[in-house]
Amino acid sequence: MTYADVIVDISVEKLDKSFQYAVPKRLEGELKIGACVQIPFGGRKLKGYCVGLSEKPKIDPAKIKEIDGILQRDAGGEDVRVALAAWIRENYGSTMIQALKTVLPLRKSVKKVERRTIVRKAGREELISLLGESQRKKQVAKERLLKALLEEERIPYEWVTGKLGVSAQTIVSLEHAGALQIESTSSYRNPVKFQSGEEGWRDLSPRQREIVGTVLEDFDAGMRETYLLHGITGSGKTEVYLRLAEGMVQRGKQVILLIPEIALTYQTLLRFYRHFGDRVSVLNSSLSPGEKYDQIQRAKTGEIDVIIGPRSALFTPFSNLGMIIIDEEHENSYKSESTPKYHARETAEKLAELNGASLFLGSATPSVESYYRAMEGKYRLFRMTDRLTGGELAKTEIVDLREELKAGNRSIFSRRLQELLADRLEKGQQSMLFLNRRGYSGFVSCRSCGLILKCPHCDVSLSEHRGGKMICHYCGYVTQKPAACPTCGSRYVLGFKAGTQQIEEKLREAFPGIRTLRMDKDTTATKDSYEKILGAFADGEADVLIGTQMIVKGHDFPNVTLVGVLAADLSLGSGDYRAGERTFQLLTQAVGRAGRGTLPGAAVIQTYQPEHYAVVRAAEQDYENFYQEEILYRELGSYPPVEHLLAIQVFSVDEKRGEALAKVLSEQVKRSFPKERFAALGPSPAGIGRVNDVYRHVLYVKASKYELLVRIKDKLEETVSEMQLSRENVQFDFDPMNFL
Ligand code: ADP
Ligand code: ZN
Ligand code: ZN
Predict the structure, then answer these.
(1) How far apart are CA 693 and CA 563, in angstroms?
(2) Ligand 3 centre from 646 Cα, in Å?
(3) Which atom of ligand 1 has the smallest separation from the CA of 268?
(4) 100-138 pLDDT, tens per residue?
(5) Burial letters for 546-583: b for 16+ Cβ neighbours within 10 Å, e otherwise?
(6) Between 247 and 593, whose confidence is greater?
């Protein structure tokens, strides 16, 4: 006998309250987790959802009632969300309850919060005269606020103290001067108030018009597709999103726009507010749970047409969804880091299918996955190759660090970079120094010839561990670090260690009196510090901004004319099949930071691998050719998107038990599918082998069919659940963003 766990009330508080029903013989095999069923309940017939199946009755089997039957799903609404959760559970691995919790809006106690708004009080002339005064006195914070007030009549208080970095004291002093007034309301209904149609529509460029026209015509013809827009920064992608959204609204449809949290700037939001007024809303991390909940309610009741937010905004309960737009679709943050580890792009594809909606993706550096699908003809590709705002791409030079060492330069700054930095200091222009630390996991390289020590079995780099050991985190291979380089015999074979703080110190040594700002994990630990540092840099409070990948995202500093990338290789050596892609994206973005204003820009990329295609193509800003070489590498290594990869992670408080379980699972995989073609690798200790005293082991399965990996996952889930483990935990990650 099979028993089904059924929930009758789909709300987060009631999810754990399931009731067991017997599955009649005629429905066995047909009834799947996530199905919609009719059940007898307290003398009535109710609709419920199946969240689990088992062979064991939880109570006296004589008291268990039978399911009446499987119901057809209703279009829209709850049924679709449960179907989406079932799909997530199946394709990424989790319980149905975990999947439902991901998809359903969280109900938190809603407390009214006080919301303050800064309202312009003085006339234009008065503001301009105050602005002149603050400029003379070099009161930069005041200046920023006055400039903002000249543009906007009403500005949220948090935005002024946060993004603008203006202190409460400064606000009060401007209030006393009669420039502004602080308004308080206890309503959280709408985070920002704007009138719709405040801004007229721009005339689209011919290319923009063609793209918007094609997508909307397809929609009207009943075609639902996935589109990929590859457009360089400043080519007018956001304008295209706006018009697509408008087209949907005109058709009585709703729109979800996903934007990475970090790019969710007030400037972008303003463009939407001005067109859609209070019919648009935003979900981001600065909203309280109550405010978030409220936005979701507004979506449910049809008060809003467009929602903007990060990954989780995908689950906004619209009843008439027409389009999902994903900006910067290549961003890693679209993949969830907790179980179920779903990818927002793929999940959006499923959601669009369930709702009869279209999916529109945009990026300046599309993910290899999306571009591959476009090349296969699964996605429809559009290109925009011109910058609408003018401004030339930076002149980029690649500096070979091996040559620097040969010439006796042991400094972290190449001679060329030093020369250009000195020049910018003299001219009073600004520079940015970018330390590429992404994916950095202690890889070992030769400083004389640039050789990176790799695993003989995997073509990924080895990571340095204590005691001079080097480990491959993919297959588990271990070897001793050599005393000399196997290629050139040099003794400079070292793990890479460099931090932003060291760079700042070295920079001050090389250029006494230089004014620096630093942006990394340490300096951005407190709320708003991120905006404050950027604000100070924009105000010219420093000559150089030093930072990790945080500084390369979407900020325009017109006075920045030089970008230096200190170690382009760090991300190449991360021992990861996405290293080339990530490096290309970061370098392209970094180089794109220079010369945004009227002054021409230059960029210097320092590297031990000047001939690596990711470095060369990024310097040329040539995505096409980068892609061609990257996909070849993926084909050779059978990596995603050409084939698929399932990472199985075992967490255990006991190292030996964790290792043993990982081995058991690995054997299980090999034994259970003798006829299928796949490769099982590992197990090995994970890249970060222990966190909070929990040990991690990982094994990989590679296969050309995603569906086979899903079956392997199902099998392992079953095995693990039979073992009834209490101190171990197993997680699945399909096509992971990094080797774990
Ligand atoms: P992207 O999102 O690709 O970076 P944006 O949509 O932000 O590009 O456009 C870049 C700049 O060009 C913005 O300042 C925008 O206002 C301007 N812009 C976009 N479309 C047009 C247009 N059709 N006519 C004039 N300016 C435009
Ligand atoms: Zn060497
Ligand atoms: Zn290996």
Answers:
(1) 41
(2) 16
(3) 7
(4) 888 886 665 555 556 788 989 888 889 999 999 999 988
(5) bbbbbbbbbbebeebbbbbbbbbbbbbbbbbbbbbbbb
(6) 247
